[in-house]
Amino acid sequence: MHITSPAFKENAARALADPGLQKALGTAKGAFLQRRAAAVANLPEFERLRDIGRDIKNHTLANLDFYLEAFEAKVVAAGGKVHWCSTADDARAKVLEICRAAGARTVTKGKSMISEELGINQHLEAHGIRPVETDLGEYILQLRNEPPSHIIAPAFHLNREDWEADFRRMHTDLPADRVFAERRDILAEARSRLRERFLAADVGITGANFLIAETGSSVIVTNEGNGDLTQTLPRVHIALASIEKLVPTLEDATSLLRLLARSATGQDFSVYTTFSTGTRRPGDLDGPEEYHVVLVDNGRSNMIGTDFQDMLRCIRCAACMNHCPVYGAVGGHAYGWVYPGPMGSVLTPSLVGVEKTANLPNASTFCGRCESVCPVKIPLPKLMRHWREREFERHLTPTVARAGLGTWAFLARRPGLYRMATRLAVGALGLLGRGKGSFRSLPLAGSWTRGRDLPVPEPGGTFMARYARTQRGRR
Q: How far is the C-alpha of 275 from the C-alpha of 216, rounded, in Å?
């Protein structure tokens, strides 16, 4: 498992200095915001639907053991198998075992963040099985040997010219005069390459947006149709999903689907919404001979009953990162693991430990936009604050920062001393900055002035003094 989250600050600095990345971020992020706003405005009951989605997920988590057993029973009744995997190692081993039993040499894959979390591609490759990504964004990233930078738009960090350059580098038989003027040209080229691989694959692996306890179904949503081909053409279909993807009923899944596409891409529904239930039945024209659901815990059950249980409501729409000013400035790779943005800043420490990821909960302005757009009302700023508290309790915060917070806390508990200290500080800054509009550098404030100026305090003293004078003037 490759994690570079401890280097978030260095990663972010590189991202800010990368002109290609900044161009891609500037081009792509606005479209998500506009489309989501329009979709929400066209659905008057959207806020009520958010409450319903939150309550569905809370109810499921409170009764997760019951619904997991009910789901397994329905899968088995439909001819499938459920494999329970506590750890990432267990899940990798099970997927490999199923592929070997099928004699697989090639595996097609639909987009799946849990497969990225587990490192399924690398594990299969190490054992002589070739995984082929079929989502357009994932396909180009596989050519580049890069991880996704966004959970619904994996190649969010690339520009059209990057795609064309990589196609020409890897598809050496392309005519020199072949032009990729629009996205559909890139899509046509990828389809022409993938068609034979769909037909040759022995096993198809997809993720699951939802698992339905009532029917034993897995649900995937795509806009390209690759997911359908991945799970219907091969003899064996593996649905790889984490345990919190479960919902009780078809009606619950439908309610959440109404939230998902609107929050993710601004669509009423994705182009393809596919329910898979069991193996091919007599009379079916297509479908797998074997249907396996690999259920992965990998730390999720440890979150239940804790301050971080609300994070398990996440339906992976990416609205939080689309609206996050930090993600919008540095992109997804800066976060150093599979899950970027605000949701990653909460989920990653939960799964791999705050000791490795303490920078992530601090990569937030706490503006609250992530919580305001979350379709299932996850209180992301509050959860990040909980991780900051854990970081401080475990002495993971840098010594200088701890000393500064300790000094502030000492003064804040003593109002008279606090007012005196702030008056002295404001007065001193006023004298030092006389005749200047701002400080370009200042002792003990280097982290601030390295990237921005510090304004000189205006005459009139501290905020508290000015507020007191204003209140007296109103009497």
A: 10
In the DSSP assignment, the letter for residue 456 is P
- Tell me which amino acid residue 388 is: R
Using CB atoms within 10 A of its CB, is residue 176 exposed (0-12), middle (13-18) or buried (19+)? exposed
Domain ranges of the chain: 43-298, 399-474
pTM attached to this predicted model: 0.89
Secondary-structure percent of the chain, ordered helix, strand, coil, rounded to 5: 55, 10, 35
- Give the Cα separation of 94 and 84 in Å (integer): 9
Residue 1 has pLDDT above 60, yes or no: no
Task: Summarize pLDDT for 13-70 with one digit per residue, the tens.
Answer: 999 999 999 999 998 878 899 999 999 999 999 999 999 999 999 999 999 999 999 9
For 43-298, the fitting CATH number among 3.40.50.10420, 1.20.120.1200, 3.90.650.10, 1.10.287.1260 is: 3.40.50.10420
The contacts of residue 437 (CB under 8 Å, 6+ apart) are 453, 455, 456
Q: Which two tokens stand for residue 154?
A: 């994996």
